[in-house]
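Practice record 12: protein with magnesium ion.
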Amino acid sequence: MAFDLSLYLVTDAALCDAYGLEQTVEAAVSGGVTIVQLRDKHASDEHMTAQAKRLKTLLAGTGVPLIINDRLQVALESQADGLHVGQSDAAVHEARIAMGKDAIIGLSINTLAQLQAAPVELLNYVGLGPVFATVSKQDHAQPIGFDGLAQLANACPLPSVAIGGLKAEHAERVRTAGAQGLAVISAICGQPSPYQAARAFQAFSNQDFSAP
Ligand code: TZP
Ligand code: MG
């Protein structure tokens, strides 16, 4: 499946609770989100698989892929479009073999050494960050700032998406640093209007929002 990293929504169960997970995703996609990652550090595989199946149905026909954070079994059972793994998560090799050549597989990267060690031939994109410190991820790695982002994005042979404390007003600087898009949790999840929150990212970008 073709994918566009321009505005990458990562869900958070607690933050999405008020508005509803499916309602948040639906509104955010109407507002311009181009790719969705279901992320839940606490749910059982069964619960997450059921949610993933509902999101798959909701996203059908929109061209917006569904990526699962960490859980290969959930991705397989829900027939999600891809999997995103962190440095200490399931092996990329295993995921590629299990999910096949068309799956979208992404890896989180925080340092140049991690980028150099990444199996880029098995990946479709990388997540670079955190750009800023954030309360949305416990024990996140050292923030890299826009300079670190630029260094990693420019050294990276794959499309990249920046993450960590990003808001609409950062869209321009992220693109200037060389990343294809912004990944966000709290700038959309838990906002009074996830639709307006997603739209705000386009207002801050005076360029075409799609990946080059
Ligand atoms: N990985 C690095 S930072 C982060 C993740 C999942 C959380 C991003 O959340 P927010 O609210 O957009 O800062
Ligand atoms: Mg992880």
